[in-house]
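Retro notes (design track)

What went well: tokenization of the new backbones is finally stable.
What didn't: we kept losing track of which sequence belonged to which structure.
Fix going forward: every design gets posted as structure first, then sequence, in one message. First example under the new rule, 320 residues:
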């Protein structure tokens, strides 16, 4: 069935499939890397006899790298699009996991971890949020929240990672995770469409408006049903310079800084700590995952209000 513009109607707006893809990718990233890599902390340290301080330096380098890469990641996402960023990021990310499995010295561990962090910085948070903002305007905060749900539920993978380490060892488990990253995230990334115009839609699934000259042209002959300029005119976005002059921007930055300061050390050391007080590795992994975050997106209002935007930002920060 088609409408008067010759565009095939779908029961589900194509943009929600983009959100589903980004949620799955963020689920994998948070479960294997952001939350899940803590499960590898003690096994790697025990193998080489390193102290907790030496091993923790890698996580500090990762946080520094992520912060330094954030502006570049955003710039590249604007220039080459979320799809290419996802593909590049997960090619590097999968290779990073496998490279980590081959380390035999502390400097190799640091180098492999920074390489892995580079892939995760390029191929997860930034392009996933870019998809939400490009495909949705009226329902943007809801879309970002649903994408963040993937990151919040990634902790489900921690017990599986802990089980794999107990059964196969940390080196083999890292190889499995790297191959899984390629097998899951690369195919999903290949289905991504950077903008709704690529499938003949405007953001939120609204039908495109036609100019008087184009109304007499058959739909099958139209090559530019809707253009980027038309979509971009819907929202009056701030430029980078304009955003930097606002107090809201710097307040959000400070909130993110203090949030990361308070949670990063916990995420890195929670499983090693639980193991040190007698919890088995798998049980420690189960206890690390907090299902308390799951109801948060479902509690958001149905309309994009200020309340919802604030809840979305808080939840997304929690997931990161």
């Amino acid at each position: 069935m088609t409408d008067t513009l010759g565009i095939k109607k779908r029961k589900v707006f194509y943009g929600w499939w983009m959100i589903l893809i980004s949620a799955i990718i963020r689920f994998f990233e948070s479960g294997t890397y952001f939350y899940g890599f803590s499960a590898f902390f003690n096994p790697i340290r025990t193998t080489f006899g390193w102290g907790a301080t030496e091993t923790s330096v890698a996580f500090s380098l990762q946080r520094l790298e992520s912060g330094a890469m954030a502006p570049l990641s955003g710039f590249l996402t604007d220039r080459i699009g979320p799809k290419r960023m996802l593909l590049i990021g997960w090619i590097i990310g999968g290779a990073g996991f496998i490279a980590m499995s081959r380390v035999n010295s502390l400097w190799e561990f640091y180098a492999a971890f920074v390489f892995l962090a580079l892939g995760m910085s390029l191929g997860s948070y930034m392009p996933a949020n870019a998809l939400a903002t490009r495909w949705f305007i009226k329902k943007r905060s809801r879309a970002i929240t649903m994408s963040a749900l993937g990151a919040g539920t990634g902790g489900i993978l921690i017990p599986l990672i802990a089980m794999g380490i107990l059964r196969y060892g940390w080196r083999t488990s890292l190889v499995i995770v790297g191959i899984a990253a390629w097998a899951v995230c690369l195919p999903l990334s290949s289905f991504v469409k950077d903008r709704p115009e690529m499938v003949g839609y405007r953001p939120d699934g609204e039908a495109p408006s036609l100019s008087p000259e184009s109304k007499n042209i058959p739909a099958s002959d139209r090559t530019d049903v809707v253009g980027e300029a038309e979509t971009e005119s819907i929202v009056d976005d701030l430029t980078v310079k304009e955003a930097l002059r606002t107090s809201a921007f710097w307040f959000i930055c400070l909130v993110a800084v203090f949030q990361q300061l308070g949670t990063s050390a916990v995420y890195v050391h929670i499983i090693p700590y639980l193991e040190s007080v007698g919890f088995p590795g798998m049980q420690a992994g189960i206890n690390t995952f907090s299902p308390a975050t799951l109801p948060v997106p479902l509690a958001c209002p149905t309309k994009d209000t200020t309340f919802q935007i604030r809840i979305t930002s808080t939840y997304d920060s929690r997931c990161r």
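Added context from the reviewer: The domain at 14-206+222-319 is CATH 1.20.1250.20 (Growth Hormone; Chain: A;).
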